[in-house]
Amino acid sequence: MSRISSVFEQLKAQHKTALIPFVTAGDPDPQLTVPILHALAAAGADIIELGVPFSDPMADGPTIQRASERALKHHIGLKDVLALVAEFRKTNTATPIVLMGYANPVEHMGYETFAKNAAAAGVDGVLTVDIPPEESTGVADVFAAHGVDMIFLLSPTTPEARINVVAQKASGFVYYVSLKGVTGSASLDLTEVASHIPAIREHCGLPVGVGFGIRDGETAHAIARFADAVVIGSRIVQEIENSPREKIIENLTNFVRGIRVAIDAK
Amino acid sequence: MRIGELPDERGHFGPYGGIFVAETLIAALDELRREYELARKDAAFMAEFRHELKHYVGRPSPIYHAKRWSEHLGGAQIYLKREDLNHTGAHKINNTIGQALLARRMGKKRVIAETGAGQHGVASATVAARYGMECVVYMGADDVVRQSPNVFRMKLLGATVVPVSSGSKTLKDALNEAMRDWVTNVESTFYILGTAAGPHPYPMLVRDFQSVIGDECLTQMPDMIGRQPDAVIACVGGGSNAIGIFYPYIDHKNVRLIGVEAGGDGVATGRHAAPLSAGTPGVLHGFRSYLMQDENGQIIETHSISAGLDYPGVGPEHAWLKDSGRAEYVAINDDEALRAFHDLCRFEGIIPALESSHALAHAAKIAPGMSKDQVLLVNLSGRGDKDINTVAKLSGIEL
């Protein structure tokens, strides 16, 4: 069983919801990425989404786009991101890492080379935002052969019939994008989000993570009541952006701890 | 499969094209594809499209024999397809009319567009005014400065122009931002994509709407010279004017198809916008094609004297035409394009767009080596009024 699946099994047994924070690799600089990953795990992250910086992050809002730009100033590439994961794995073999990014850096490295190197570095799953299931033929097989889960998005605009198509290709978990828009968008209608989950569960046996628009403990708590995982990205990246470098670890820790408590509250 | 029958149903031209977008846009692209399939078979829709092209755009655009320039060059005869004479001054309007009619058919009241040189932005603002739609145009902040007359034109036409300050502040960033808008407002909004690129079905439908250019040439050339030209030459940024004139000629195997990319300071310098000449395949903006990218697969900044060619990717059908050998692609540097710009002004009394000047420059390069009874057909895709500030500045003149 993959590291991702076993995390969800354990949490299910404890009636807990997973917390998945997102940070961009190399933001604000590559030296701080591994300490940030350890801090997130220590503060209560069950899985960590690690963003692979890309020059043209089409599906991201300004916050995560700026994180990419900060990281790219250090010329951090996909192979550097894999090296950071390997570094993290030296002292943490428990917390799954999901790489989140765009197709081109992976395509440029080559899917086979990437899958092999990612597995060797200790990557557990990959979410390439702009590779929908229809374009993943071949890619999904390559990832599976190396034991890397391929995580796909579902959105409010996904027709029910299509959930099956996604479910057939997905492994690890599915990521429900809780609003139409880019990452970091503002308003979230919780009733609306909750109303989409039953259809997903009907067609897809995988755990359902929910993300986009979750900015505080209150929302995280509400989402945790019906989701298997709560994903928080832009709000965490903001914490990095707005903190002086020496306070980043402390501020991130406090923020993530607060979310953890909110999610676990009955 | 015959080249001309591509793309397949998921938008592939060989290994290129496809639908590489986030899940939120999949349903919108499906809807667009379904609607377009119905529209292209709907006689009333196509009749209205043709009616608009005739009475609003002023089609067919003429073909003109550039006799004095050809004589000066001393070789092949150069003929110009006068897309610069279209309403709004470029080929872009052919496509925006087609897409605006689709938007209206789909009940969308808001249209958005990206623009580089501003020609597509103007063409989008124009049709939005014509059909009574709200229009928002995304434009790189650098391009807003470079192309200020077009920015004012769009505003006169009632559009909102949003400068984009992220990334390299040019066309690719405007495209990113337009996609973000579309993801957010997907139910109310129609995205009028300006070139034969992006996720399927855009490369196909832009090609189909622009094919009127080549279709007209197919009958105009025999009327003028009794046969088809020896070669068709067009500039290639995203590639919509080129695919528009190439596509109807694909089956005419004796006609060479030559796409001209922006060589900037020279392909060898790395400062250019010529992905077919010096790029490698990758995925950007929803499709796979040749891209300008670094060793990490990051998209690199492009350089060209012409804002309309300043794009790191190229339409997927061009990638396929290149690999299949049916079309050839070359690069023309800034200085060569500028020389052709001035030559056309002086020899023919036509001020060409800097984009089109790249195609003209390649014609000027190969014509002298050809015989006087050979014919080059150049797509003069736009007029150069918008570029006079750029050209004046290069000549050290303050307007």
TrEMBL record, chain A:
GO terms under cellular component: cytosol
EC number(s) from the headed UniProt entry: 4.2.1.20
Reactions performed catalytically: (1S,2R)-1-C-(indol-3-yl)glycerol 3-phosphate + L-serine = D-glyceraldehyde 3-phosphate + L-tryptophan + H2O
A Pfam family the protein falls into: Trp_syntA
Pathway it works in: Amino-acid biosynthesis; L-tryptophan biosynthesis; L-tryptophan from chorismate: step 5/5
Active site positions, chain numbering: E49, D60
Transmembrane parts of this sequence: none
Record flagged with keyword Lyase: yes
Keywords: Amino-acid biosynthesis, Aromatic amino acid biosynthesis, Lyase, Tryptophan biosynthesis
Enzyme class (EC, first level): lyase
InterPro entries for this protein: Aldolase_TIM, RibuloseP-bd_barrel, Trp_synthase_alpha_AS, Trp_synthase_suA
GO molecular function, one term: tryptophan synthase activity
Top-level taxon of the source organism: Bacteria
HAMAP family assigned: Trp_synth_alpha
Function description: The alpha subunit is responsible for the aldol cleavage of indoleglycerol phosphate to indole and glyceraldehyde 3-phosphate.
Family label: Belongs to the TrpA family.
Subunit structure: Tetramer of two alpha and two beta chains.
Protein name as annotated: Tryptophan synthase alpha chain
Species of origin: Sulfuriferula multivorans
Gene: trpA
UniProtKB/TrEMBL annotation, chain B:
Modification type N6-(pyridoxal phosphate)lysine: residues: K92
EC number per UniProt: 4.2.1.20
Broad enzyme group: lyase
Pathway it works in: Amino-acid biosynthesis; L-tryptophan biosynthesis; L-tryptophan from chorismate: step 5/5
Molecular-function GO term, any one: tryptophan synthase activity
Keyword Magnesium among record annotations: no
Any one Pfam family match given in the protein's UniProt record, by short name: PALP
Presence of keyword Amino-acid biosynthesis: yes
Domain of life (superkingdom): Bacteria
Cofactor or coenzyme needed: pyridoxal 5'-phosphate
Reactions catalysed according to its record: (1S,2R)-1-C-(indol-3-yl)glycerol 3-phosphate + L-serine = D-glyceraldehyde 3-phosphate + L-tryptophan + H2O
Domain Tryptophan synthase beta chain-like PALP span(s) in chain numbering: 58-382
Keyword terms, alphabetized: Amino-acid biosynthesis, Aromatic amino acid biosynthesis, Lyase, Pyridoxal phosphate, Tryptophan biosynthesis
GO CC aspect terms: cytoplasm
Signal sequence bounds: none
CDD domains: Trp-synth_B
Family to which this protein belongs: Belongs to the TrpB family.
Function: The beta subunit is responsible for the synthesis of L-tryptophan from indole and L-serine.
Record text on subunit structure and interactions: Tetramer of two alpha and two beta chains.
Matching NCBIfam families: trpB (TIGR00263)
Protein name: Tryptophan synthase beta chain
Gene: trpB
